[in-house]
Design brief:
The complex is a heterodimer of chains A (about 1000) and B (about 500). Chain A has about 1000 residues and is mainly β. Among the domains of chain A are: about 80 residues, Sandwich (Immunoglobulin-like); about 130 residues, Ferric Hydroxamate Uptake Protein, Chain A, domain 1 (Beta Complex), CATH 2.170.130.10. Helix content of chain A is about 5%, strand content about 50%. In chain A, the strands form twelve sheets. Chain A has a 22-stranded antiparallel barrel. In chain A, a hairpin with a 2-residue loop joins strand 20 and strand 21. Chain B has about 500 residues and is mostly helical. Chain B has a domain of about 160 residues: Serine Threonine Protein Phosphatase 5, Tetratricopeptide repeat (Alpha Horseshoe), CATH 1.25.40.390. In chain B, strands 1-3 form a two-stranded antiparallel sheet. A two-stranded antiparallel sheet of chain B has the order 2-6. In chain B, strands 4-5 form a two-stranded antiparallel ribbon. In chain B, helix 2 runs antiparallel to helix 6, helix 9 packs antiparallel against helix 10 and helix 14 runs antiparallel to helix 16. The chains are: A mainly beta (about 1000), B mainly alpha (about 500). Chains A and B meet through strand 22, strand 26, strand 27, strand 28 and strand 29 of A and helix 1, helix 2, helix 6 and helix 19 of B.
Chain lengths: ~1000, ~500
């Protein structure tokens, strides 16, 4: 009887459960404008069951009973929790998030709510990143993040920019590290923009200290797109096609003008009738082209209880604005996550990348402005014109034919495999293995050719090389999270290992047996001319332990403390380990009772942080004394090269990493329902123990100065970000402004170092890093005017061999003689203000945005105007505005062709590098959902866009962005590959 | 509980491998390179380290701009050359306006020769520790000592008192080396050369494959020059005659051929810096040819170090050595491959024919010429000079006349007639004059002028100041870095 009762009970329960599961809830999700939201997630709270809305915004979900709570969410909208309370029909209106203060932000080894952040972290989302058509995603950060300077080192397709976070903190490698889905990498050239979900820039020590010795230059975290749980797979396709052209051209002297200058310089009529030569050739026409840029990205993502997936394929193709250069890249990315058991999941973020590129002929940018404009591209007999008559400048058109086979091919696998175990309640353990394999090949070929006696190659030649880099990383972390009463705590502990190796092999041969690509192999060349190389990089290895605690009291007093202990193989056995602590606090003032009665502010938070970080971007061999090979001697009647090797450079086994200590104070303010937000930070970053080669007397005989940890550099500044979002009727608009200042000062260069020389131009020091000045300051003579007459020369301090019409220098030290001692600080290559601002609006499906950025306060040394080389290359047209006799010009000298004083390093060649650019604009139209429904599309947007559209600057060169990875010689324009202006049409579609 | 055990085991399995990495993990070795601490273990190491001392002879600092500027250009034999604005700083060597910090060539020469000393010191110290065939070991150390003497001999003649470094310095010794008196430097040079004479084989005793290494004769010849420089004519005579009497050397009949490729390592060669233009790389070359090559058409180089008017005027009428030394505009190249065209941008356009080289693999900077440091004719003239000073005029005449006779070749006896007996002073002047024209543009003139005390009179019109310009300034950086322990030469 009893058992029967039990059975009945059980049956009833089963039936009731089953019956309850029959409850079907239907509904519709709209935005505030009444437009249906497609693809919104509708989930049952505390379960894995859910669905997404269809193209009408409608959904249907089966719930266990009519009293559960549904969670409705959609990206960019405030998530709503709706208790059903026995309703079966819902009308949900999702509100667009005015600001994203509750968004989740990725931080090192985890995520956090933006409101919980104690450090200085800026997050950039995929929409922003995709505004710039470029191979390298970092290009998109230009002007977007306060405190981050992104400058193009070269417009060559596929090349990444130079990135500096909060100034230049070292005299060595100053580039940040990149952490892609947890894998620490030195560059992200392989990543395509469309695969990126978000990029987080960790700027202060509190945020970056968890990266220890690697974090001193800042950390950029990149999260790629992941799948999301949904009833139906999402398919999205995006594409753009555009054209690129050189942003600016230089105004060169034409043939008649050039001939006149040559006559003037030669003191005889080399060209009897200059005017008859007319315009001649502008060689810039020869090398620049309109380059095609296009990109296609297809992504399919989705997920169920057992797995999440996101698979994307991407094609990026770019022709350079200089003929013959191009970059193509093909990517397949698979980011999946599998729930093996309730307590264990496994996932991977893996990308396979293939690329190929071709480099333009070497020196062609300079040759296109230096080549003789009186020479034709080809003469009447069809031969290439001789541009070397008055100089050594090659004919750029001939270079394009003969010197443009410079191929590079890359294959890369970058992947991260991880497994999470939910060990006990609140405790998760993760083991993550990352692997980065790079295989690069290059091959260049130069045929036998003869243009003239200076531009020729007597025998065909080929060079080929392979490079393989392997980098693996294994991280084990444990994470404990607990909330109770008014406390929240999040503990992290971990142990990580990383190893980086690489080797290259290659060679060259001359006299190939054929001149078409099937012969471009070493074995098709003459064995007698063979050269080869094979090298291995000194391995880099790291062992680290790390800890972090996040603690929140009453959700308004926040504390983060972290500690990392790092061991690095780059340093000698006694100096290998170091510890990097940080601590940060934040106070959400807005949540205090006394703030509840005011209406003005809707957010107020104060932050403060302190921490120490390391920089180990020094040569891996600086601490290991090695024997230098290839110091061969020639002996014997056959003049054999006999191997020689010895120690030529002294090393320092006591080296350590550079230590940077930074402090950050921040305030976050929100008003008008957080439509207005302001975020301000003050930072101060002192880098000590900077590795610097300390000069030793030359009589010691070392071929290089040994490195010591001796220099220090201070960077400090203010960052501000101001944003406003508003609405007028159906028009949503927004405007934002960000700016940051950088004060860069060298505090010490170590004993015995008064200065460090940087670049040399025309045999003279052009940049000098001095204590008390900025890194890489321009250094040279100050121009006081132009000598008008012999009396002038007699009257002013003795300047050595000068003639009337020459530049007159300032006698800086006042000793009555102009000597190299009168060279002085001329200006800084580091801008003191970096800014960006943007405006945007959307109405009735149309959207518009414009992003501006710029820098102020830096100088550029226009060095390409200083290179006269041999003979008489062409001049920029403004050289015609010159001194021609007493009283004619007190600013520009007479025409000379190199040498002291007119081509010495002086402020005559220094220009204001400030600029402002319309970095990008977009005009888009999103088709109404009702229309799309018929085409089974969930969204479709078409847009027109432009990059680098407008430029305001006083700088006269191709581009005022002159990046250089060598911090001692930044801002020197030696004729870089110019930046491009781009116009595109694009589309984003979702199915 | 069981489910937790599985979880713990899984966790352990995951973390185990990584934690197995201990601190040895951080011990890495440079790849493909020997750690300096493990060097000087084998015979190969000893040979390699010696070859590396020779290697330094071909570097820019040792034989290019700094060398040519501080030997020929600074003398009355040559002017800077090229067109006026090109490397204009070198014109300070024409008018004696160079100083302690400008131009950098003076520092580069100091640096380059001291790097040679460093390599020699490293090798001498290191080879001594190697277990190897004693005879070879002695020879290698002898070669290194010869080369150390070579480097120091240039340094002491250019700068006077200099830091005397005889072993690789320790970190605590970097900044506190004072200038040693010149006499001490000469003592080391003399001792090194005597050791080398002891240890080295004669030219003919070397295996063919070692042609070009330092020899007993080379060490004697250089030692003769050292003694001549410090005015010890007895020893100068002794060592010069030892070279002559060794029977290892003879004048080449045709003067012009000495400087052609076939003249390399000829019977006249006592010591040459060996160089070659390889097909596959520039590893065997120097910049010496390129710097002095014809600028313009045919395009052979940069056109620096041009023979001066004064040198042109120094030759006796009909002396064929003038044409063998100077390459004029309009002249056919020695191999007949072209004619030197006028380059309107060049002043004083005539080139150093002794640095001319026929076409070779690679470009101009793959310069193949051996640089003739010591020729037998030089030894004969040193012998003549020392004998004359030692009042053996008749014997001196024989040697100078050998040199003149060779220069005359098959021309009539009226050309470069044999000198006859005259006063010691006249013969001294004749020998000095003979040295100038015989060795013109071979980077000897400056040292001869200073050594013989002629510099003040001969170079005064160019700006030479007596009691100052006999020595070059010590590079300012050395004074700054030693905090004044190193003092400047007088007058700078």
């Amino acid at each position: 009887m009893k058992s029967l009762q039990s059975l009945l009970w059980a049956a009833c329960l089963l039936i009731s459960t089953w019956a309850a599961a029959q409850v079907t809830v239907t509904g519709k999700v709209n935005d505030e404008k009444g437009e249906a939201i497609i693809g919104a997630n509708v989930m049952i709270k505390n379960s894995t069951t859910g669905t997404i809305t269809d193209i009408d915004g409608s959904f249907e979900i089966k719930v266990p009973d009519a009293f559960v709570t549904l969670i409705v969410s959609y990206i960019g909208y405030t998530t709503q929790e709706i208790p059903l309370r026995n309703q079966t029909r819902l009308e949900v209106v999702l509100r667009e998030q005015a600001t994203l203060i509750n968004e989740v932000v990725v931080v090192g080894y985890g995520t956090t709510r933006k409101s919980d952040l104690t450090g200085s972290v800026t997050s950039v989302k995929s929409e922003e990143i995709q505004k710039i058509a470029a191979a390298n995603p970092m290009q998109a950060l230009q002007g977007k993040v306060a405190g981050v300077q992104v400058s193009t080192a070269s417009g060559r397709p596929g090349e990444g920019p130079v990135v500096r976070i909060r100034g230049t903190g070292t005299l060595n490698g100053a580039a940040p590290i990149y952490v892609v889905d947890g894998l620490i990498l030195n560059n992200i050239d392989f990543l395509n923009t469309a695969d990126i979900e978000s990029m987080e820039v960790l700027k202060d020590a509190s945020a970056a200290a968890i990266y220890g010795t690697r974090g001193a230059n800042g950390v950029i975290l990149i999260t790629t797109r992941k799948g999301a749980r949904s009833a139906k797979s999402r398919v999205s396709f995006s594409s753009y096609v555009g054209q690129q052209q050189v942003e600016r051209r230089l105004d060169m002297a034409n043939a008649a003008e050039y001939a006149q200058l040559v006559n003037e310089l030669s003191g005889r009529a080399v060209y009897p009738n200059p005017d008859a030569l007319g315009q001649g050739t502008d060689w810039q026409d020869v090398i620049y082209q309109n380059g095609l840029i296009h990109n296609y990205n297809l992504n399919i993502s989705g997920g169920s209880d057992n797995m999440l997936f996101s698979i994307s394929a991407d094609v990026f193709r770019q022709e350079g604005i200089i003929r013959s250069s191009y970059f193509n890249r093909y990517t397949l990315r698979i980011n999946n996550e599998y729930n093996f058991f309730r307590w264990m999941k496994f996932g991977h973020n893996a990308a396979f990348v293939m690329s190929d590129n071709n480099r333009e002929p070497g020196g062609i940018v300079f040759n296109a402005i230096a080549a003789d404009p009186t020479a034709p591209v080809r003469d009447t007999t069809g031969n290439y014109g001789n541009t070397s008559r008055n100089s050594n400048v090659s004919n750029p058109a001939a270079q394009l034919e003969y010197n443009s086979y410079n191929r590079g091919y890359g294959q890369q696998f970058t992947g991260n495999f991880y497994s999470d175990i939910f060990l006990v309640k609140n405790l998760t353990v993760r083991s993550s293995f990352g692997y980065n394999l790079v295989n690069n090949r290059n091959r260049s070929y130069e045929p036998q050719f003869f243009v003239n006696d200076k531009q020729q190659n007597p025998e065909s030649r080929i060079f080929a090389g392979f490079y393989r880099g392997v980098d693996w990383q294994w991280e084990n972390t444990a994470n404990y999270r607990k909330e109770w009463k008014n406390h929240r705590i999040d503990l992290l502990a971990g142990y990580t290992v990383q190893a980086i190796t690489g080797e290259g092999i290659g060679g060259g041969r001359a006299r190939l047996i054929g001149n078409t690509p099937e012969f471009f192999y070493l074995n098709a060349g003459d064995e007698q001319t063979a050269t080869n190389y094979h090298f291995g990089n000194t391995p880099e290895r790291y062992l680290s332990t790390l800890f972090r605690v996040n603690y929140a009291l009453f959700d308004k007093y926040l504390l983060t403390a972290s500690w990392r202990r790092d061991g690095s193989s780059k340093f000698g056995a006694k100096r290998r380990f170091g510890s990097f602590p940080s601590v940060a606090v934040a106070w959400r003032v807005i949540d205090e009772p006394f703030m509840q009665n005011q209406k003005l502010l809707t957010n107020l938070k104060l932050r403060a942080s302190w921490g120490q970080l390391g920089n180990d971007k020094i040569p891996a061999s600086a601490a290991i004394p090695t024997v230098t090979n290839s110091l061969s001697a020639v002996f014997g009647p056959d003049e054999q090269l006999l191997f020689g090797a010895t120690v030529i450079t002294l090393a320092n086994p006591f080296l350590q990493w550079e230590l940077s200590t930074s402090t950050n104070l921040g305030v976050e303010v929100g008003a008008v329902d957080n439509r207005l937000t302001l975020e301000m930070d003050y930072y101060r970053r002192l880098t000590d123990k900077i590795l610097v080669a300390v000069p030793i007397p030359d009589y010691v005989g070392s071929a290089g100065d040994p490195f010591v940890n001796a220099a220090s550099v201070l960077n400090s500044g203010l960052e501000a970000v101001l944003n406003w979002r508003g609405r007028i009727g159906k028009l949503n608009y927004r405007a934002g402004l960000n700016g940051s200042t950088v004060q860069n000062e060298v505090k010490s260069l170590g004993a015995g170092n008064q200065f460090l020389r940087g670049a040399f131009i025309n045999g003279e020091v052009a940049t000098l890093t001095e204590v008390g000045g900025p890194i890489g300051a321009f250094y040279g003579y100050r121009v006081a005017g132009v000598y008008q007459s012999a009396e002038d020369i007699a009257q002013y301090p003795n300047q050595g061999l000068v003639r009337p019409g020459d530049l007159r220098f300032e006698d800086v030290n006042g000793d009555g003689i102009i000597s190299p001692d009168d060279r002085t600080y001329l200006g800084s290559p580091i801008p003191n203000l970096i800014f960006g601002f943007n405006v945007g609006f959307d109405i009735a499906g149309f959207d518009f945005s414009a992003d501006f950025n710029g820098v102020r306060g830096n100088n550029i040394l226009n060095a390409k105007r200083m290179f006269r080389g041999f003979g008489i290359p062409n001049f920029e047209a403004d050289f015609l505005d010159r001194w021609t006799g007493p009283g004619t010009n007190d600013r520009r000298p007479r025409t000379t062709n190199g040498g002291y004083p007119n081509y010495s390093v002086s402020d005559f060649f220094l220009e204001d590098g400030s600029f402002m650019r319309l970095r990008s604009f977009q005009v888009g139209y999103s088709f109404p959902k009702s229309l799309l429904a018929k085409a089974k599309l969930s969204n479709l947007r078409l847009y027109l866009s432009g990059n680098n559209v407008l430029l305001w600057t006083k700088y006269s060169g191709y581009s005022p962005e002159i990046g250089s990875e060598n911090v001692l010689q930044v801002g020197i324009d030696g004729g870089i590959y110019p930046t491009a202006r781009t116009f595109l049409v694009g589309l984003n579609a979702g199915f | 509980m069981k489910k937790y055990i599985i979880r713990f085991l899984a966790t352990l399995a995951m973390g185990m491998g990584a934690t197995a990495c201990n601190q040895d993990f951080l011990d890495v070795k440079p790849q493909g390179q020997i750690n300096a601490e493990n060097y000087f273990q084998t015979t190969d190491h000893a040979i390699w380290a010696t070859n590396a001392v020779y290697n330094q002879l071909r570097t820019w600092d040792v034989i290019a701009f700094p060398f040519l500027a501080m030997t020929d250009i600074v003398s009355d034999d040559a002017t800077k050359g090229s067109f006026p604005a090109d490397a204009q700083r070198l014109s300070t060597f024409d008018d004696f306006t160079y100083g302690p910090s400008f131009p950098e060539e003076i520092r580069l020469a100091w640096r380059g020769y001291y790097r040679g000393v460093f390599r020699a010191n490293t090798a001498i110290e290191g080879i001594a520790k190697v277990q190897m065939d004693e005879q070879l070991k002695n020879r290698l150390i002898g070669e290194c000592k010869f080369l150390r003497a070579h480097y120091y001999f240039y340094l002491v003649r250019w700068f006077g008192d200099i830091p005397l470094i005889t072993k690789p310095l320790l970190e605590s010794e970097y900044y506190n080396q004072p200038r040693a008196p010149k006499a001490e430097v000469y003592n080391l040079i003399i001792q090194d050369l005597k050791d080398a004479i002891e240890a080295l084989p004669e030219k003919s005793q070397y295996p063919a494959a070692d042609l070009g290494r330092a020899t007993k004769g080379a060490a004697r010849g250089v030692l003769a020059k050292v003694y001549l420089t410090i005015g010890d004519f007895v020893n100068a005579e002794r060592y010069a005659l030892e070279v002559i009497n060794s029977g290892q050397y003879a004048l080449l009949p045709n003067y012009a051929r000495i400087f052609l490729p076939e003249g390399e390592n000829s019977s006249e060669s006592v010591f040459e810096i060996q160089a070659t233009a390889l097909e596959e790389s520039y590893a065997g070359a120097t910049a010496w040819n390129m710097i002095q090559g014809v600028r313009g058409t045919p395009n052979l180089g940069w056109g620096f170090n041009l023979p001066s008017d004064d040198l042109v005027a120094a030759y006796e009428p009909g002396d064929p050595r003038r044409d063998a030394t100077i390459l004029y505009v309009g002249e056919v190249l020695p191999d007949g491959s072209g004619v030197v065209q006028d380059n309107p941008e060049m002043l004083n356009e005539r080139y150093n024919q002794k640095a001319w080289t026929p076409s070779h693999p690679g470009l101009q900077d793959n310069g193949p010429s051996n640089i003739r440091i010591l020729r037998y004719a030089d030894v004969l003239l040193m012998a003549a000079e020392a004998l004359n000073e030692n009042d053996k005029l008749q014997q001196a005449l024989t040697y100078i006349n050998q040199v003149r006779a060779r220069a005359r070749g098959n021309r009539p006896p009226s050309v470069l007639p044999a000198l006859t007996f005259s006063s010691k002073e006249q013969l001294r002047q004749a020998i000095w004059r003979e040295r100038r024209v015989e060795l013109a543009m071979e980077q000897h003139r400056w040292f001869d002028l200073v050594r013989t005390g002629q510099a003040a009179t001969k170079l005064a019109p160019l700006g030479f100041k007596a009691n100052k310009n006999e020595l070059f300034p010590i590079p300012q950086s050395e004074i700054d870095l030693t905090n004044g322990i190193i003092k400047q030469n007088p007058g700078y």
